[in-house]
Write a structure and sequence with these properties.
Layout: H1 2-24, E1 37-39, E2 41-42, E3 71-74, E4 85-92, E5 95-103, E6 126-132, E7 140-145, E8 152-156, E9 161-162, E10 165-166, H2 174-177, E11 183-184, E12 192-198, E13 201-209, E14 218-231, E15 236-239, E16 256-263, E17 268-282, E18 291-306, E19 309-317, H3 343-346, E20 355-356, E21 360-361, E22 379-389, E23 392-401, E24 404-405, E25 412-414, E26 416-428, E27 431-443, E28 452-465, E29 468-479, E30 488-499, E31 503-512, E32 528-537, E33 547-550, E34 553-560, E35 566-580, E36 585-595, E37 601-606, E38 609-613, E39 618-628, E40 635-646, E41 649-663, E42 666-679, E43 682-698, E44 701-710, E45 715-725, E46 731-741, E47 750-760, E48 763-764
Parallel strand pairs: 1-16, 2-4
Antiparallel strand pairs: 3-15, 4-5, 5-13, 6-7, 6-14, 7-8, 8-11, 9-10, 12-13, 14-15, 14-16, 17-18, 17-47, 17-48, 18-19, 19-22, 20-21, 22-23, 23-26, 24-25, 26-27, 27-28, 28-29, 29-30, 30-31, 31-32, 32-34, 33-35, 34-35, 35-36, 36-39, 37-38, 39-40, 40-41, 41-42, 42-43, 43-44, 44-45, 45-46, 46-47
């Protein structure tokens, strides 16, 4: 205990030193220059539109003056770009045309590491642009590509900030993230792009139909516009409109102003029918046929009611083409978070985001159409209305699900449900104020009387200054039916964030009542008060050329019950982190944890062996050493070793990942997490091995495989997916899934196997 008290006091001293440094250091953010302005070129109806082939050589482009003044954010903030970039924008024939010539003094060094739609653009030469089509300085459409011409698109709300913290930008992968936040990389628009590497660098042309966007109609309209170019072989990021370090392309309020847009009324009517055939075999089924065969048709409908308001509807919804969840190891007593990946729920998802992501989420769409174990529940239909009305951002969602059945399909185990969500938000300058209502209502003969759950809340995101943001919310839930005992209770949070090119400092306080029960949200624990704090310091040494940045940081959070008793506490102390010039990082950190469970819980349960941690008071330290190789290299990887204690035992772990870019079109990766845990109540080992492979035939056609072994569950799973896309994420999907049981205590070897063929088609009117 003395050893722990000494280390705890050292931890407090470290934080006090950080606080003293913060107090002594000027925190005034450097003001960026005023955003540039330019006028868009106009394409006459009689003129010939540019050919979208990736070569900016048509005569029509020469009629548009290029914008070619770009400024570095990294490595030398504020310096002119080391390579020339020319951007031209044309509007006409119902389309926005954009061309970019990314000059490069040595085109042979251009790095291309992605050939898949919505693949990450962070570690490849690329461009990412934002279009603030309402000129509201908060929201934008995002488009990006690389020298192979992949399609990357998304939506950003509230400048990419959730709970006051920027989520990072610049082309992170949309497919794998799948999260619901203020930046949604899973929106798929209908547009065209082509790129080529030429003797002057690489070039790209984009054609974005205006009906793909939302905007205010009229003549001589002004949009916000910014473009970031990643010159990856120099690890250099340059911007058309200057963005200070610490922020990213989603800082919409600093975008250039693009005027001269004559925008016609938007007519947008799309039908997306689908047909599906599948065979599923459940080897564990004892009663009934082990094989399920089905043929299903369904329809998605999209109607642009107004240029700034869209209605989406779905009938007989199916998500068989969605990628499998990635396995995780759980050594805590709380539920793990698995992100949403279903396209219908991901589109415009940021409209409905409310709360603190993965901590206090009032609306989490995986609660709709999925059981607690991830088994699909049929969605009969639903609709969503989203957009702007009279200065308000609005969102309305209604979904009806069918009854939930057991694995054999012989018994109803849950009633049908209707889900309704209403969200409004008013933007005032760069601040916003809003409210939400979420309702789950049991329907049908299987629903008990009074079976409902409702959540309401109000929130605010207040921009105090260009570098300071204050956010908060208050919410309440009411429960009925079988969960009537929860009654009504409240939750709330206040959070402050300061960010500039050198510091990011934030702190907050959350409180969740014992009876707070958002059944359509995500809440891993309830009944607590939680203070939190974090500080990042990111100076850039000028005299050590091989170092891009050092990034020491510290974070803290704790949970107390309403009697003031500590439930758990976590410190992350990262005094040593170096980011080399070419990318990656390495360093050392220490984690200090306390946990005071009031009931025993199992951390291992396999082959008839259970390891249970009893109720008590525990405190422990862990030290970790990590190395992340340059992620743009053809062969890259990460290594992390962790050693220390775990509750009242010993903990050792090693984590390895290795990624191979065989060609720009063929990639593979393998990972291994090994945990060796020794407790007084029993010893056990966890192993998690994910293997991924992808081959892209074209930028819209690829085959991918995800193989996973998780020793904690004793299962090996395979997911192989062929996608041949047409437009907006539609096309032909062929999916094979296989699950195997490797436990010695069970007799079944194969648990389940499925084969799915699905075809979707976008019909545009």
């Amino acid at each position: 205990m003395c050893r722990l008290d000494y280390r705890y006091s050292c931890c407090l001293r470290f934080v006090l030193v950080c606080a003293a440094v913060l107090t002594a250091t000027p925190l005034v953010a450097q003001q960026p220059p005023p955003p540039p302005t330019f006028t868009v070129g106009k394409l006459a109806d009689s003129a010939e539109a540019p050919i979208i082939d990736g070569k900016v050589n048509e005569a029509v482009w020469q009629t548009v003056p290029p914008y070619a003044t770009f400024t570095q954010q990294d490595p030398v903030e504020g310096a002119p770009a080391s390579e020339k970039t020319e951007v031209r924008v044309l509007v006409g024939k119902g389309t926005l045309y954009i061309s970019v010539i990314a000059f490069d003094s040595d085109p042979s060094k251009i790095i291309v590491s992605q050939a898949r739609r919505d693949g990450s653009l962070s570690e490849t030469d690329s461009i990412v642009l934002v279009l603030d089509t309402f000129n509201d300085n908060q929201n934008a459409f995002v488009f990006g590509t690389n020298p192979l011409g992949i399609e990357y698109d998304g939506q950003v709300a509230r400048e990419g900030q959730t709970s006051g913290v920027s989520l990072g930008g610049g082309g992170a992968a949309g497919i794998q993230r799948g999260g619901i936040s203020a930046f949604n990389p899973n929106w798929d628009g209908s547009w065209t792009v082509k790129s080529q590497v030429t003797d002057r660098g690489w070039e790209t042309e984009l054609a974005i139909p205006l009906k793909t966007l939302r905007y205010q109609t009229g003549t001589n309209q002004t949009w916000g516009f910014n473009l970031m170019r990643n010159i990856r072989h120099k690890n250099e990021q340059v911007y058309l409109a200057t963005i200070p370090r610490g922020f990213d392309i989603y800082r919409v309020s600093l975008a250039a102003k693009m005027s001269g847009l004559d925008l016609p009324p938007r007519r947008d009517l799309k039908l997306i029918p689908y047909a599906l055939g599948s065979v599923n075999k459940d080897y564990t089924r004892i009663v009934g046929d082990k094989v399920d065969k089905k043929a299903v048709v369904g329809l998605d409908f999209k109607w642009g009611i107004r240029p700034n308001l869209t209605l989406d509807a779905t009938v007989n919804t199916d998500f068989a083409q969605v990628e499998a969840d990635e396995e995780q190891v759980n050594l805590t007593r709380f539920d793990l978070f698995f992100p949403e990946k279903r396209p219908f729920f991901l589109e415009n998802a940021s409209t409905f985001q409310f709360g603190n992501p993965q901590q206090i989420d009032l609306f989490f769409t995986r609660r709709i159409g999925l059981s607690a174990t991830g088994v699909p529940i049929d969605i009969l239909g639903g609709g969503r209305l989203s957009g702007k009305l009279g200065g308000w951002n609005v969102g309305a969602l209604n979904i009806q699900t069918d009854e939930a059945e057991n694995a054999a399909g012989t018994q109803v185990v849950g009633p049908a449900n209707n889900f309704t969500t209403l969200r409004v938000q008013r933007e005032v300058g760069r601040s916003s104020y809003g409210a939400i209502f979420v309702n789950r209502q049991g329907t049908g003969s299987s629903a008990p009387a009074g079976d409902f759950n409702r959540a309401y809340g109000v929130d605010a995101n207040i921009q105090l200054s260009p570098s300071q943001r204050l956010s908060g919310f208050v919410a309440r839930t009411d429960s009925g039916g079988a969960r009537k005992a929860f009654g009504s209770d409240y939750a709330g949070r206040a959070f402050y964030n300061f960010t500039n090119s050198l510091w990011q400092i934030s702190g907050g306080y959350s409180q969740v009542g014992e009876g707070f029960n958002p059944e359509v949200g995500f809440l891993p624990r309830r009944g607590y008060r939680r203070p939190e704090f974090r500080a990042f310091f990111q100076p850039q040494p000028k005299k050590i050329e091989w170092i891009r940045r050092v990034a020491p940081h510290v974070s803290f959070n704790s949970f107390y019950d309403f009697n003031g008793n500590l439930q758990s506490e976590a410190w992350h102390i990262h005094p040593f982190e170096i980011q080399p010039k070419q990318g990656g990082r390495f360093g050392w950190f220490a984690d200090y944890s306390k946990d005071n469970p009031t009931a025993s819980f199992a951390v291992y349960n396999r082959d008839g062996r259970r390891v249970v941690i009893p109720a008590g008071q525990y405190a422990w330290w862990q030290n970790a050493f990590e190395y992340f190789h340059n992620p743009s290299a053809r062969v890259t990887g990460t290594v992390r070793f962790r050693v220390g204690d775990y509750y009242d035992g010993d903990f050792t772990s090693a984590e390895f990942t290795s990624e191979y870019r065989i060609t720009p079109k063929a990639t593979a990766s393998v990972g291994w997490t090994h945990q060796d845990i020794k407790l007084p109540y029993g010893n056990f080992v966890n192993n998690l091995v994910p293997i991924k492979a992808n081959y892209s035939f074209t930028t819209l056609a690829n085959i991918s495989a995800l193989l996973q072994y998780n020793s904690q569950t004793g299962q090996f799973s395979s997911n192989v997916r062929l996608a041949m896309l047409n437009r907006s994420g539609t096309g032909l999907f062929v999916v094979f899934n296989d699950r195997r049981d490797l436990l010695s205590s069970t007799t079944a070897e194969t648990l389940g196997r499925s084969f799915v063929i699905k075809y979707t088609r976008l019909v545009d009117f």
